[in-house]
Write a structure and sequence with these properties.
It is built from eleven helices and eight strands. It is α/β, with parallel strands linked by helices.
Length: 295
Amino acid sequence: MPRAALSSGIEIEYEAYGNPDDPTLLVVSGYTSQMLGWDAGLVELLAAQGLHVVRFDNRDVGLSTKLDGEAVAPMKVLRAVLDGEPVPPVPYTLSEMAADAVGLLDHLGVDRAHIAGVSMGGMIVQTMAIEHPERIASLTSIMSSIGDQRVGKPTDEARQALLAPPPSERAAYIEAALRAQVWASRRYFDGEAVQTRAAAEFDRCFYPQGATRQLAAIYASGDRSEKLARLDVPTLVIHGRDDTLITPSGGERTAELVPGSRYLLLSDMGHDMPRPLWPVFAESIGGHTRIVATT
């Protein structure tokens, strides 16, 4: 797969689908998730909407640059944010991760792109739209939130499952992937598909060290509410009623804040993108990009 060397010194592994002459849709993965989080089958459906779709590994995961040796304590960062105290230094924030994505667009020669992100990826694309609005044709924020710790709060069970250290042995890692059932779509949970992706991710790059840095970046970036309320980017917000990891108030508040945004709440969706809902995601995102193109 191709690799982009950014001016910041970060290298980003990426993969493109569809016709490069079509409008570009950059899709951004979530916390600790490799580009495989945007399943190739879903990406192909998006490309069939007349889009040039690019997926990539965020920094500190997959085959992109790792910040080895950069230590951080995410819970200390969160406590400082909640107490209104100065935030301890962190290796990077969502702003740097957003800049990585914009740097990838530079590498691809794309002046303006449609962007869609899931979970932490939704936070990254929100930050891209806030800090680089001239580069953004449209924004889709999926199962994400706004950085205000009062909304989108996970259930205790989901939080514990998310923060549990992953096993380092392959078979145990694949078995532990079933923890995702805690936050997954109840109607469509497919344990075999979850474990198949876990195996692919383990074989491609097992790198749990990046998790603390990505989590600290989320916490240190703070509340985007005021900036989202001033956003002038066509926005679609998608959330699942079954989501226990970022509960629906996160998506609802995002849609309330962004002027003119559209909100799609799916009753059978959790904190995942199950195969039976791929046509819904593809048609919703594709339709959003086409509406933008005609306005």
